[in-house]
Amino acid sequence: MSISSISSGAWRTQVGAALAAGRITDALSILREASSSTPGSADIWSALGAVALQSGELAEAESALRRCLGLLPGHVDARVNLASLLLSLGRTSEALGELKQAHQYDASHAGAWLLLARARLVLGDASGAERCLRQAESILPDLPAHALFQLAGVLQERKAFADAKPYYQRAIAKEPTSFLYRGNYADMLCSIGELDQGFSQHREVLSREPDRLRSHLALNLTLPGIHGDTKSLTEARDHYAAGLENLHERVEIFRRLPVTEIEMDIRWSNYLLAYHGQDDLDLQRRFSDFQSALLEGAGPTMKSRRAVAADAPIRIGFVSSFFYQCTVGWYFSSWIKDLDPTRFHAHIYSIGPVRDTLSESLAANGAFKQLHHLPLFRLAQTILADELDVLVFPELGLCPTTFTLACMRLAPVQCAGWGHPVTSGHGNVDLYFSSDLIEPPNAAAHYSERLVRLPGLGTRYPRPVNPEPVTRAQFNIPEKAPLALISQSLFKLHPDNDALYRRVREAAPGAHFLFFEDSFDRNTELFSSRLSAQGMVRSRDYTFLPRMSHARFLGINQLADVMLDTLHWSGGNTSLDALAMGLPVVTLPGAFMRGRQSLGMLNVLHCEGLAVDSPTRYVDFAASLLGDASSRDAWSARILAGAEQLFDQPGAPAALQSAIEAEVRRRRLEH
């Protein structure tokens, strides 16, 4: 907030002294009197608007700032403060208009660039925000702490972690007691595998604020992205389970925290549990119980149900951080796009910052709200205000915000989809939608929700098209070697897979393995050390491919000879991409749905023979395919011949609608 104009003269001196002493009410009284006695002074109105904004008197602030600009349109400080006020009220387009005019009067006003960065973040334009922050930095190298923190955040968003570090450190140096700055820095360090440094930062927080919830969550529940071996994985899981019990022991202490602190800190993602290959039901329930205990009496919740006719159109909401071109978007956009508008009125809540062509297409199918900038409880209140009949979380568990929202009762019926294919453990989530093809016979025992099996893939998945041609030379891949593609992200590769890769290499000594780099270099190197322990040599036996566009990824699938599916966590979107390109997928189905997705797809294609029943059979079959081009070609032709049965099938969205309709109408009749 700019109040730089309060610097000289009688009223300026008095206001400056009052503000320095923390007497903001006195400062307001002085300025009100000054504006009454000298109504033609733009500076007085600007100062009144700035101080009123600082004290939360927003109506008075807007009125005063507009009076100033009516007298002096080029008063840039007033225009920037007005833009700040408008942003705080959610009037983003108006704020942008004010900032555009501010730049016309003074393009070197650092505050205007900083505020424009904030507006860009509200709009989900992280790259635009970074450009604005860089421009402000060129004008004002010694940025204020909040701007350094914002710049660190946008760099972290685009995975420039090394660049983000010094900005976090500078922000913390300016405001060493800020939990927000130090806590986010600590979280980033943990996320990139620098656990000791991250934990050190969280302990520093607790030395100042012993009951800070976020740091207790981090120290008790953080899981590594990559495990060195099965033993370290088991130890990490045991630490997590013990950490949950530690948190439960302190729950009454946490319940006494200020509501605003609970709101800020309660979100947590435990999605890495699902890659351990074990039954997560009890741990998920225990974590849900902990969050629910803290939210009781603090978070918004549905107070009563609307009285409506049993056959009235259903108000259905979908909330996700991934309503854009990505796995979740491709999987579940049909759930929204295929809704019958005569039976359903859709509300779409996008709580992630990314917006693209898929987001825009979804916006044409209902009331689309971009809400990523809202704090947790305002987000919940926004959903509650729409008085939904049913709320659907397509990928419950991937995003900490949606996971916590689901702890609250925001609609009479709440449902999860298998975008994150493991139970939520939430008592407030009623139904879990999955695919009948991929669930094992005893699947219901794996869920706290009531399992609903949808036909086929459980969605109408569009067939990938138009791959970007790639060559081996582009990635320094040996020209003659048969290529075994492992498409999954490295953090999904359980250590149990490592020996299989060694055994396949030994059985097919000419083969070359293709993996993809992790977002974090440390994780890539840790996984590489696991392969080295199996006697595999980088470049000779395997190549790490860089992150790439989806089109280029499809080209890699065309280049490969076999996809080796992973134990415990099978391919979902990656298997669909492979099969769309005609690439044979060798899979060993697991005990839980998340290890059986490729099996379901192969069953649709009548290619069950690519699914094996033991590690030995996996090794033998994979090696035989890598060594026999004619066999690979035969499987590829068979896959492509049946692909029409796998993609763009309408049955699942229709079944989803029927299941939701039956549940909602049953509850309406009960009510």
Describe it for me?
By secondary structure, this protein is α/β, with parallel strands linked by helices. The protein is 52% helix and 8% strand. The chain has a 7-stranded parallel sheet, covered by helices on one side. Strands 10-9-8-11-12 form a 5-stranded parallel sheet, sandwiched between helices. The protein is globular, with a radius of gyration of 28 Å.
Brief summary:
The protein has 29 helices and 12 strands. With 671 residues, the chain is of the alpha/beta class.
Supply database-style keywords.
alpha/beta; disordered N terminus; 671 residues; five-stranded parallel β-sheet
Give the SSE map.
Blueprint lengths: L9 H11 L3 H14 L4 H14 L2 H14 L4 H13 L3 H14 L4 H13 L3 H14 L5 H13 L3 H14 L4 H13 L3 H14 L4 H9 L8 H20 L1 H5 L3 H7 L15 H15 L18 E7 L6 H11 L6 E7 L6 H7 L3 E4 L5 H10 L4 E4 L6 H6 L7 E5 L13 E5 L14 E5 L28 E3 L10 H12 L4 E5 L4 H13 L8 E4 L4 H10 L2 E3 L8 H8 L4 E2 L10 H8 L10 H12 L2 H14 L8 H20 L1
Largest sheet: 7 strands, parallel
Distance between the termini: 51 Å
- Give helix % range: 40-55%
Q: What order do the strands of the largest sheet run in, or round the barrel if closed?
A: 3-2-1-4-5-6-7
Number of strands: 12
Rounded Rg: 28 Å
Strand proportion: 5-15%
Instruction: Enumerate how many helices there are, as a single number.
Output: 29
Mean pLDDT: 93
Overall, the morphology is globular
Structural class computed from helices and strand pairing: alpha/beta
Low-confidence stretches: 1-8
